[in-house]
Specification:
Helix content is about 40%, strand content about 20%. A hairpin with an 8-residue loop joins strand 8 and strand 9. The chain has 18 helices and 13 strands. It is α/β, with parallel strands linked by helices. The strands form 2 sheets. The chain has an 8-stranded mixed beta sheet, sandwiched between helices. Helix 12 packs across helix 14.
Length: about 450
Amino acid sequence: MYYARLIDKHLSEWASDNAHKPLLLRGARQVGKSSAVRHLGEKFKQYIEINFEKQPEYKILFRKNLDITKIIPQISAMCGKSVIEGETLLFLDEIQACPEAIMSLRFFKEDMPGLHVIAAGSLLEFALNELPTYGVGRIHSMFMYPMTFDEFLNANGEQPLIQARDSATTHRPLPGPLHEKLISLLRIYMLVGGMPEVVSRWVTTHDFIKCQEVLDDIILGYEDDFSKYKGRTDPLLLRMTMRSAAVQMTEKFVYSHVSESHKTQDIKKAVEMLVLAGILIPVTHTNANGLPLGSEANSAYRKILLLDTGLTLRLLNMAIGDTAETTARILTANVSDLVNKGAVAEQIAGLEMLRCQNPGNRHDLFYWVRQARNSQAEIDYITAFGGKILPIEIKAGTQGGMKSLWMFMREKNIDKAVRCSLENFGNFNYTDNEAGGAVRHVVICPLYAVSMMHRLLKENG
């Protein structure tokens, strides 16, 4: 069964655009790229799917030449289906297995502009890096991630709950029972994660053990892929790096914690390979003195997130042993003592911020930390809103000091911030006496409502 995804809307808009370009759908393995394309294919009179790993015989068509007017009739003859502009969706899956097919994409726009072509591949980024050119300006990209919490709710038939949540404001919070139900579902989402196959298993069984079995299969699939990284990095080191990223989640990533027997340079290379594969997501330090934030980014200070909380907790189990206590704490503990001092909450917030943005662009995550010696001041995430810098503090529960936030806002002369926690919707003002009585406004965005953050900010001016 197909569960609706946020990217469906963007794919439909692409399909209805008369000036559409060939589309590259990019993202890690098992995040639902192929399923989303097949779902879109149901809207076309004709749908053709070619998988270059399962059907290597199609590779020869692209190796002879890149003349689309010759290749398309050959594809039509081989699959027994007519390829008609405006009526056919052609899906080239696992296209990284045929670099020539990637290079041919730019010619679809020139020679068959009315044909809808989508290409995807789980290791696509490696192939793109090796090509001298693949048609920049003539190909459109979309980036896909695991399911958001909203998509998880929708898959579980909680549409009325989504509607009730979306009707809340910082001045009109949710009724207590609805707030508690959303927290309960968020706890489940922390454990299950957003990988579509795992979500589907949860919907049909409501069995955490069966979900963990699927997560284990996905992890093993990722590790099997490591041998395909074309000798760039030792597969064993890649496995160690992935597990260490789970252990070090939301902390400054320390390369020596991965392995004492490997060179730092080799570990850095392993991290970059996993980032390229979409398995790891960096959160980079920025001085945050102005926009764009990337202009003052310092990659020497990075936190690393796994692409999914469900995978993170399974990797923790592999790295440090039985995590049954962690699982129990997520499901039963008081919200102020969630897990690992809020590490999973911080991870979910960052991933939700990333996944809820426009998939037509590649987005980065940033944080700020005071680099002075013996300083512990840190802001979990820094982003931009309304042309200004916006600090976002993540709290696992409903309490916690905010000294770092006040310090940051004072230094950067910022008057608005977000506290993302398991509190209900709300907002408050803070008078900063150390800054001459300057008033700081803080919007409280529940962790289960990160997708609403921009709307809440607009409502608060």
